[in-house]
Input
Amino acid sequence: MRAKKTAKAKPVARAANHAFVSEVPDRIRRLINSSLEIDEVLNLSMHLMEKTVGATASSILIYDAETNQLKFYLATGDKKDILKVIRMPADQGVAGRSFQTKRTLLIPEAAKSPFFYNKVDEKSKFVTKNLIATPIEVKGKCIGVLEVLNKARGTFTSDDARSLKAISREISIAIENARLYDEVKRAYMDSMLNMAKAEKYRDGDTGLHIERCGAYAFALGPALGFSPKDLESLKLSMMMHDIGKVAIPDAVLLKPAKLDPAEWEIMQRHTSLGGEILGRGPHMKLALEIATCHHEKWNGSGYPQKIAGNQIPLSARLAAIIDVFDALSSRRPYKDPFPPEQVVSMLQEGSGSHFDPELVQLFISRIAEMREIYNTTTA
Ligand code: C2E
Ligand code: SIN
Ligand code: SIN
Ligand code: FE
Output
């Protein structure tokens, strides 16, 4: 029994610090690579950091130049929801001073510190006993402050302050990487979108089909549980669904008549080809699944993989309805538009065979809005 207890004893703080500091960059890098969002990376960093210095709470304040305030960007502990709406003048408090001077400040007794800004505690009902604040610098510019508060036992030491400083550097790198990564992702999305648009010009369409497909998806997404953040991605992905058509020759794409079996074979490849083009990019999961699966059918008779029902990703099941609604409503080199009433009955006929029945129901329940999008996004 006794031996067990000894074995369980905590490692000394210093050893833990070293392990932590060397572990952070690697973990953060892995997290970013596995496509987690920056907030999750920061949250994890904060929890590891609290453990390292034995703090009971921590927060990241980010500078807002417009108001010259420091805003609680992230916080842990039971007051974190209140803190989210609290801000403090960027030239006051321990945090403000750390921000202005770019120095790490160790405050063993907050109540006795001339710098301590107690309005945050007043509003949050958190009682700050001791804290360390350290600047977060990205490319030599201070963008905010990292704080740990209330050491569980005793008060913070200069060792803790050193650890925090090291962690802040890692967090800065993570923020900078995430920003760069975001830029790359955005640039990639932009170029793909341009390619999708250029493709549409080729078959005489003015790119409006693409705009509309994005707009229908944007309108319907919330009803399918897409968060505001994913909605933008859903919209862009929907706009790129036919990107694989860049690889389809004019003779097939622009043929003003029915395709023969060999041509049809070629045409069907636009799905897998689209997936191949988009799948190379970062964060392109939705775009990839929509491009690959938008011609799959609910009963398994579609292409290219002949998957059925819920095997087809939700985004692609939605894309199928949106795409056909818009195609039926429009003129194509090979067909005239159908009248609005007939478009609806064709969608209904496809319910359960071509389309996910629940999604058809949703789409038709919002038909007035869908027609409005069609009519206001037409040349
Ligand atoms: P698209 O023109 O964007 O059409 C998308 C989907 O809308 C079609 O997928 C189909 O499900 C539906 N759709 C379009 N027009 C009609 C129609 O007149 N009747 C019915 N019931 N559904 C229609 P699908 O069939 O897998 O075709 C994929 C793409 O292949 C089409 O995209 C188009 O680019 C091309 N395509 C299909 N049929 C022909 C054709 O007869 N001639 C030519 N030149 N291209 C065709
Ligand atoms: C908390 O109560 O969550 C911590 C307070 C703070 O981060 O300032
Ligand atoms: C301060 O920086 O003086 C207070 C900040 C806080 O309570 O989180
Ligand atoms: Fe298609």
Observations:
- The mean pLDDT is 87.
